[in-house]
Every structure is written in C-alpha cells, then in structure tokens.
Amino acid sequence: MERFQSAKERFERARRKALRQDLAARVTGAPRDLLPFTPFENYLRAYGRIEHRETESILLDRIVGSVGRYRDFTRSFLPRTNAMKDRWAFVQQRLTSMEGLPPIEVFKVGEVYFVADGNHRVSAARVNGFKQIEALVTEYPVDPGLEPGDSLDAALCKAGRAAFLDGSGLAGRVPDDEFLLTWPGGYRRLAEHVHLQSVLMQEAAPDRNVTPSEAALAWYELAYLPVMEVIRQHDLLRSFPGRTAADLYVWVWGALLKMHYLFGDDMDPQEGADLLALRAEFAPRGGLLSEFARRLRGEHDGVPDWMLDALE
User: Fold this and answer.
1) Alpha-carbon distances, residue 240 vs 63, 229, 246, 258, 292 (angstroms)
2) Contact (CB, 8 A) for 306 and 255
3) Residue-range domain boundaries for the chain
4) Could you tell me whether strands 50-51 and 56-59 are parallel, antiparallel, or unpaired per DSSP bridges?
5) Following CA atoms 230, 235, 239, 244 in sequence, which dihedral angle do they give, to the nearest 10 degrees?
6) Residues with Cβ < 8 Å from 2, sequence gap 6 or more?
C-alpha cells in the first residue's frame, strides 16, 4: 500500500509539471498535444504495413503521437487529468518492481512512433527517466520526415507531400524542396491538377495508355514550372510572408479557374500572377479586389460564392 501511495504522489508531481508545460506552450506557441494518428491514416493506407513479430527496444523520445489518447498527455507524455491517477500509479508501481510490464504496441512512420496500446506505460517510463521501451512494432514503409517537434499541420503537410510524390510518380524526379505547402489540403489540389492533366492527355491520344507518372511529369513541366517562373519574376513571395511558392501556385491556378468560369476566356499563368500581385498590393488599402468581387456577385446571378473567393 505504501508503494502505491508513493506512485500516486509521483503522478501528482508529473501532473503539476504537465500544467507548467501547457502554460509555457501557450506562451511560446509550441505544440502542446501529441499527434493524433487518425489524420495520417488516409496518407498511409496506400503503403500497406509490416508487422514485426519480435519485440524491439525503441527510443521513447521518438514517440510523437497516439491513436486515441493524444489529448490526455502533453507532448512529452506527462499526464494531464486526475481521472487517470489510479491506473497511472498502478503502472508506475509495476514499472519499478520485479513484475515489469508487457511491451507497448506502436505504429512506426519513418523514424517516429504512434502508440496504439500502452500510453500510460510510455508516460511512466518517461517520468522515470527511461530512454527506451520494449515495443511490438507495426511499420508503414514510408518516411515523410516527421520529427518530434512538428505541429500537426506541419506533420500532415509532410505526410501529404510524401503521398503526393509517391502517388504521382514524381518522387526522385523533382528537386527535394519542391511542392512545399503550408496547409495539408493543398496536396489534394495538386493531385486534382495531375489527374486533370492525365484526362486531357488521354483525350488527346485515345489510342494509347497515358501512365500516371507520364501525366504527372507533363503537368510539372507544362503547368507547375511556368507558374513558378512567373512567381519568381514578380518576387511575389515578399508580398506573402509565411507562404511558399507552391502555396501561390495553388492560389494562382484557383484564380485562373474561377476567372475562366466567370468570363469564359483562357488565362495564362502571367495573368494569374498579375491578379495575385494586385491582391497583395491593394488588400492593405481597403480591398479593391474584394470590392470588385462584391460587384461581380451582383452582376452575375447564379455564380457560386466559392468561385469568387479567390478575389477576397
């Protein structure tokens, strides 16, 4: 009983430390929660997974997330809620006794891990200063480059980029720093553009089979690179701090498609970049383009609002 009470006291100290960590993270903007595994599943499903039958020792500081308990612990696996006190104390007691604990179960993605079973064991082990823990590992054979300090958006962007490169066949055929986006949903847009390129190529040559990698490379050379060149010529990144050239590519082509819907004329990347430059120039001065969009709404009945969002 005395050992169990001591384990409870250890829990209370860990929970107070968790509170201090959360407060510090609010001030600094550092990630507070563990990464949830579920949002990554759509990216990882295409790779299949490999189950390792033997247990192995893994580094505790490479565990970045959890399947279901990602809000119950801080990023360093300190316990947050008093509701888990008894269970955590039981694990703590077993961890420091001769009884020991069974291995945890994790998903491995690149060089990091997500806990499928054993969150309390990971928490207690880290509080006790352990560096490694025994685990049964199920591995996804892809390395998006996830790191323990990544925010959820940054991690999802890395996973989305890896999935896009592999799915399009562009992996290893473009520069390493290509297609860096700042929001995960942008990779769906890129995949849609590649698909559209494939459809157009197949319609132009119905008697032959256009491969996905062939279409992706054509899109990269005929659509993506010309926009990149215009963005560099206009030095547009200076007007959009915190954004990447790939972000602006998605916006430019979104604007082109919307303007084509409105006016029916073909537009080229230069015109799209000009529109982007106008947006950057006039937005701080009262939103000329927003006013233009409002007038268009009144003059083009039936035009969906989302078609005009690029101008606001």
Assistant:
1) 34, 16, 12, 21, 21
2) no
3) 2-140, 152-311
4) unpaired
5) 70
6) none
Of the candidates 189, 154, 158, the one whose C-alpha atom is nearest the C-alpha of residue 310 is: 189
**Residue with tokens 């309390």, as numbered in its chain:** 120
Give the C-alpha separation, 148 to 137, whole Å: 18
Cα–Cα distance, 189 to 179 (Å, whole number): 12
Which residue's entry shows tokens 């197949």?
202
Rounded to 10 deg, the angle between the 245-263 and 186-204 helix axes is 60
Encode the chain (312 residues) as per-residue pLDDT tens digits.
658 888 899 999 999 999 999 999 888 888 899 999 999 988 898 888 999 989 999 999 999 999 989 999 999 999 999 999 999 999 999 987 767 789 999 999 999 999 999 999 999 999 999 999 999 999 999 999 999 999 999 999 999 999 999 999 999 999 988 999 998 888 988 998 899 889 888 988 888 898 999 999 999 998 889 888 878 887 878 877 888 999 888 887 776 666 655 555 555 556 655 655 555 544 443 343 444 445 444 544 444 444 445 444
The pLDDT assigned to 311 comes to 42
Q: Among residues 62, 75, 65, 63, which one has the least CA distance to residue 17? A: 75
Q: Evaluate whether the domain defined by 2-140 bears CATH number 3.40.50.720.
A: no
pLDDT at 38: 94
What is the sign of the dihedral through the CA atoms of 24, 27, 30 and 33?
positive
And the tokens for 282? 């006039």
DSSP helix/strand/coil, 63 = strand
DSSP string for residues in 69-114? -TTTBBTT--B--GGGHHHHHHHHHHHTSSS--PPEEEEEETTEEE
Q: Which of 143, 110, 136 is nearest to 57 (CA)?
A: 136
Question: Over the Cα atoms of the chain, what is R_g?
Answer: 25
